[in-house]
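Teaching soon. Invent one.


***
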Amino acid sequence: MGRQTLKAIGFYEHGDIDKLQFLELPRPEPARGEVLINVKAVALNHLDLWVLGGLPALKLEMPHIGGSDIAGLIAGLGDGVVGLQVGQRVVVNPTLSCGNCAWCRRGEDSLCDEFGVIGEHCRGGAAEYVVVPARNVMPMPDDFSFIEAAAVPLVFLTAWRALITRGQLRPGESVLILGASGGVASAAIQIARLAGATVYAVTSSPDKMEKARALGADWVVDRTQENWSSAVYNATNRQGVDLVLENVGAATWFDSLRSARKGGRIVTYGATSGPRPQTDIRYIFWKQLTILGTTMSTRSEFDDVMNLVWQGKLKPVVDSVFPMEEAHAAYRRLQAGEQFGKVVIEIG
């Protein structure tokens, strides 16, 4: 019957990266409507660092296993699962929703009354095996690598909903993308270009500037060398941009408001530097700005994004790949902000 345990990287208590441990746990069995995935690759997100550190009101089964972005092989099927088979290569949609509430019936999964994220609200894919709802898996092409597939879901889904669904980005508009070396930002540059927008990007080194340009950014500024909001203001003929994609929070919020043009939009999906920014309300009403929040995606957006990836119109950006035995080093690279794109852990 083979080994009935799994190896994983997880933690028993919140804290820094030194709290991560190599674990051996019982292998889960898929319940009705679930599938068992033999994980081949899992990509890290800043979410993994935040969950490790502890989030307010987040109560977890310990030990917790992180990892929202999962690609692998189906190793088992629960009762009632149809249309999938053991051995199939799949990528996982990390958004969890009940499918029954009013929001889900409208197709708004990310507003579900029981909304969750794999790897945050339940055990994730930083393990040899993980159980997920069958409706969360999508078969992937045979010629697409597990590493690249794992680098897609959370960041591309977040960027797509932020720019296209919530931000309503249109051809000919301009968009400012902060932290252009991050996973969501590197995805957002590609999505904005695909939408026909002019892309302004902010990053932190000459090397990252070149990589942002290679992805499609039209104009890039190094925030360590000059005031980025002033540079954006001057580069747009003192007009500002149509849309600012904001995830940094307290450290950038004031300048993001300044960087939006009259009638512009701020779309926010995170608060990396803190959730309580300085806000000058006069910028909002005088420039008639619209501020929009966004989180994750819907199932239809997952389908749209992954199909564009399979077609080669959107491409995952992999910064580095670590074996499972070097998971601590992978987490540290992400924590240090050294990466451009996704840090991926290869399982097995």
In short: The first strand starts at residue 5 and ends at 11. Residues 5-152+316-346 form a domain with the Quinone Oxidoreductase; Chain A, domain 1 fold (CATH 3.90.180.10). Residues 153-166 form the longest helix (14 residues). Residues 26 and 178 are 42 Å apart (CA to CA).
